[in-house]
Amino acid sequence: MNSTAPKTIRYSVIAPVYNEIEGLQEFYRVLHDVMEGLGEAWEVLLVDDGSTDGTRDLILTLADQDARVVPLIFTRNFGHQIAVTAGMDHARGEAVIIIDADLQDPPQVIPELIEKWKEGYEVVYAVRREREGETWFKRTSASAFYRLINRITDINIPLDTGDFRLLDREVLQVLNGMRERERFLRGMSAWVGFNQIGIPYDRKSRYAGKSKYPFKKMLKLALNAVTGFSTLPLQLAEYTGFAVLAGWLVYAIVWIVFAALKKPFLTGQALTIFIILLLGGLILTFMGIIGEYISRIYDEAKGRPLYILRNTPKTYKSKEKK
Ligand code: UDP
Ligand code: MG
C-alpha cells in the first residue's frame, strides 16, 4: 500500500468555539485521546465563531501542531447554529459528530455514538440524563421548551436533546442542502427521518468559563424552532378571532333580549375601554407574530451567505505564517 496516499477520513468531529480560551486546550486533549483510541482516521473541525479572547490563535496553533485539526475562522460572531453548519459544510468524514467545545458533552460518549452507527443507525443523538451545574431556571425552561415544541410542531424532536449527536454522511448531505438561515439543527435533523436512536448521557458542568448562551440567544433559538417548524402561531389569530366573534354574538343576543324586556344593559365607558384594550392588545400581538414570519421571509429573500470565513483554512494559515 502507498503510505503517502491520503487516508479517507472516517470520523469528523465538529466543535463550535466562541471565547473558550480557558478550556479549549483541555477539550482538544480529551478529544484527541478518545479519538486516537478508536484506531481510525479522524479530523476535528474547530469553528471559531468570532472569538475575541485569543481562541482563534490557539485554534491556529493546534492546527499547526496537528494536521487533523481543521480551523474554520469566521469574520465575526454568527452564532452557534451557524458555526456548526460551517463545520458540517467542510466535514469529510463518513460519520460526523457535533459536540460542544466546553466539555459539557463528554467526548468519552463518542465511542458509544459510533457503536450505534456501526449497528446501522444514521442519526445517533445523545439524550441528557443529568445536567450538572446548570441553574434551575435553565433546566426547567429547557424542559418546558422541548415539550412545547413537540406539541405544536409536526415533527418529533426527542426530549432533552441538544446538538450533541452523530450523523451519517448521507444524512449530512441532506442537511447540507437545507440552507435556511434561521437554523434549529436538532429540529432539522429530526425532520429528515432516517434511522434514529438516542443514547443517554450525563451532561457535565462547563470545564471553564461561562455559558455563551445568554437568555436572549436561548429565546431566539426557541423562536426559530417554533417559526421553523410550525405555523400554529399564525393560525392562533384565526382561532382567537373566532372566539372574539362568538363572544360578540352572545353579547348581541343578550342585548336584544334586554332591549325587548325594556331593561337597561351593560353600558358605560369602563366597558368600552376594556373592549378596546382587549382587541387592541390582540391585534398588536398578532401583527407581531405575522411580523416574525415576514422578517424571516425577508431574510431568506436577501439570500446572503450563512457565514463568512476568513479565506479558506489553508490560505489563511499560510498567510499567518508569512
Ligand atoms: N458557541 C458558539 N457561538 C456562540 C455561542 C456559543 O460557537 O455564539 C459555542 C460555545 O463555545 C460552545 C457551544 O457553542 O462550544 C455551546 O455554547 P455554551 O456552552 O455557551 O451554551 P450552553 O452549554 O450554556 O447552552
Ligand atoms: Mg455549554
From TrEMBL:
SUPFAM superfamilies assigned: Nucleotide-diphospho-sugar transferases
Statement: the UniProt record of this protein carries the keyword Phosphoprotein: no
Keyword annotations: Cell membrane, Glycosyltransferase, Membrane, Transferase, Transmembrane, Transmembrane helix
Family label: Belongs to the glycosyltransferase 2 family. GtrB subfamily.
Classification via InterPro entries: Glyco_trans_2-like (IPR001173), Glycosyltransferase_2 (IPR050256), Nucleotide-diphossugar_trans (IPR029044)
Record keyword Protein transport present: no
Organism placement in taxonomy: Bacteria, Bacillati, Chloroflexota, Anaerolineae, Anaerolineales
Transmembrane segments: 242-261, 273-294
Record-annotated Glycosyltransferase 2-like domain positions: 12-173
Gene3D superfamilies (alphabetical): Spore Coat Polysaccharide Biosynthesis Protein SpsA, Chain A
Membrane topology: Multi-pass membrane protein
Compartments it resides in: Cell membrane
Official protein name in the record: Glycosyl transferase family protein
GO cellular component, one term: plasma membrane
A GO term, aspect molecular function: glycosyltransferase activity
Listed Pfam families: Glycos_transf_2
